[in-house]
Amino acid sequence: MAQLSADCLNDILEYLEDDMINLHSCLLVNRLWCNVSVRIFWKNVWNYKTSNFRTLISCLPKESKENLCKNRITVLNPNSKSPMFNYASFCKFLSIRQVRNKLESLLRKYIKPFYTFRIPNDVTKLTQEIIKLFFVQISSLKKLELCESPDKINFYPGTKVGLKNISKLYCISNISSEIFYLLSQTCHNISSLEIKFGQFISEGLIDLISVQKNLQSFGMMQLSELAVLTPLIEKIPNTLIKLNIHKYNFISLLFIARFTNLQEINLHFYCKEDFIDFEKLQYAIFPNLQILKIQAACPKFDLLIRFLENNGNNLKECYIGDEMGHSDNSLNLAIAKFCPNLKKLSTGFKNNELETMKIVFNSCQYLESINIWCGGKFLSEKEALESIVKYSHENFYEIIWSYQYYHVQLKLLPEELESFFISWMDRVPQKSLYLVTIKNNAYSLDASDENMEIINKYIKLNVIKKFKVIDFNDNEFNWCKRM
C-alpha cells in the first residue's frame, strides 16, 4: 500500500489545526504521522494547554533550569524524560500575553497556597526563560503578539533570524523603542499590523512602519488622545487593502482617503461626534471597496448615503448599525439603490419598513446572508421570516438574528417557526439554511425548548445545515477583542 509523502500529509492535516482532539489522534498513527502532526500541534501558542507549557519547561537548556532552581521555581519534575522533539522550534504564532497567562495558571496549580505572594515575580522569571527558548529556537515566526508591558519583554542573541519572516504583528504602542528598532531592522514584509495605542508612542514604532514594503492590513485601537498620531499615520504606505479603526477619542478621518486601494474599511466608534471630517470623506472614491463595517455608532445618515452613492456598487458586504439600534429608512433605501451586488448585509428594519425590506431583497439579488435586528422598534421575527421566504433570491441561505436590547423578549411562536421551515422547503431550488443568533440576553431562538425541538427536527431533514448561538460580545465583527 502506497504511503502519503510528508508534504502531502502535512497539507491534509493542516485542516485539523483548530481541532486538537483529532490532531492528537493523528500523533498515534505511526512515526510519519507523528512527525507531521506534532509540528501542526505546536504551531499556534493559542492552542497550547497548561500541560504543553510543562513540556516546554522540560525543553529548557541547563542554564535556564539552574536559573529557575536558584529562584526556587520548582514546576519541573526532576525525573522527567528528555523531550522527543524540539517543540519550541515548531511555533509559528507566538503571543507573549498567552505565554504569561498560561504560565501563571501553571504556577497557581502547582505552588502551595501560602506561596501565592511569589507568583507575580515567579511568572515574570519563568516567562522570560520560555520566551528566550522560543526566540532562540524558532527559525521562522509568522505571527507575533507583543501586548505585554515593556519591562516584561526581552530579545536575545539569535532572535533576528526567527523574526525575519513575520507577516502579522499585534502590539501596544508603548513597548520600548529598542524592541521596535530591532523589529525595523529585521521585519520589512509585515502584511498585517494592529496596534493598541496607550498613553504614548515609542519612537521606534514610526521607524517600523516606515520600512514596511507590503503592508496590506492596518488596525488601530486608540484609547487616548495622542498628538503624535498624525506623523505615524503619514508613514503608512499606500499598499493598504484593509483598515480597522477602533477609537474613543478624536482623530480626523480624512487620512483614509489617501488609501485608494482599500478593499475593506472597519470603523468602530462610540458616538457620531467621533466621525470627524466625514463630511469630506463622503466624497472619497475607493474603486476596490468590497467590505464596509460601521459599528457602535454611525456618522450622519445623509453623509453615509453620499458615501454609498460613491462607493456602494462594488460592495459585497455591508454592516451598518450601532449598539443602540439606530437605523434609518432612507439609509436602507440607499443600500438597495447603490449596493446591488451585496452578498452580506447587516441592518435594521423598523416596524413600518416591511416594504423597504422587500425593496432591498428585490434590488440586491445576489444577497446570501442577512443580519436582522430584532425586538423593540424593529420588525418582528415572524414578519422578517415571511419576507425572507417571499422575496429572497436563490443565492440566499443565511439568517442572523441580532437582539439589540437586553429587555427584548423573543416573540416568535413555535408554530410560526415551523411554518417558515415548511415554506422554505417549498422553494425551488432549496438551499440548506444557516441560522445564527447573536444574543444580548437570555431571550433568543435557543431559549425555548419547543423551538429547539423544531430546529433539531429540520436539522435532521437537512433543511438547516448549521445552527449557532453567539454572545453579543463575542460576535465575529469585534476585531479588537484579541487586543
TrEMBL record:
The organism's place on the tree of life at top rank: Eukaryota
SUPFAM superfamilies referenced in this protein's UniProt entry, alphabetically: RNI-like
Protein name: F-box domain-containing protein
Taxonomic lineage of the native organism: Eukaryota, Fungi, Fungi incertae sedis, Mucoromycota, Glomeromycotina
